[in-house]
Amino acid sequence: MTFHADAIYERGVLRPLTPLALEEHQVVSLVVSTLPEDASMEGKAARQREVLMAYVAKVESRPDDTPQNGFSNRDHDRLIYGK
């Protein structure tokens, strides 16, 4: 399987900007391409914005997982500790 995924290099690790359809501990082969040094900041910002908006669209398309019992994570301390 071959696909394209954008990533950010942070603290020695490549972190994908979108979830990857891979199994845990699956070995993959990487081809890393960087933007040319002469690429304008506007171009880099536009690409980052494009990737971010694709991620936001994916998150917003997820179904609403609101519990049907009326409780949410906000109620955790109250339910467990009576606070």
Number of strands: 2
Proportion of beta-strand residues = 5-15%
Biggest sheet, in brief? 2 strands, antiparallel
Residues in helices, as a percent range: 25-40%
* Spatial order of strands in the largest sheet: 1-2
Spatial gap, N to C terminus = 50 Å
Order of helices and strands: EEHH
Number of helical regions: 2
Rg over CA atoms:
19 Å
Structure, explained:
This protein is α+β, with helices and mostly antiparallel strands. It has helices spanning 41-60, 76-81, and strands at 7-10, 13-16. A two-stranded antiparallel sheet has the order 1-2.
List the helices and strands and how they pair.
Elements: E1 7-10, E2 13-16, H1 41-60, H2 76-81
Describe what is shown at a glance.
The protein is of the alpha+beta class and 83 residues long. 31% of the residues lie in helices and 10% in strands.
What tags apply to this protein structure?
two-stranded antiparallel ribbon; 83 residues; 2 helices; alpha+beta
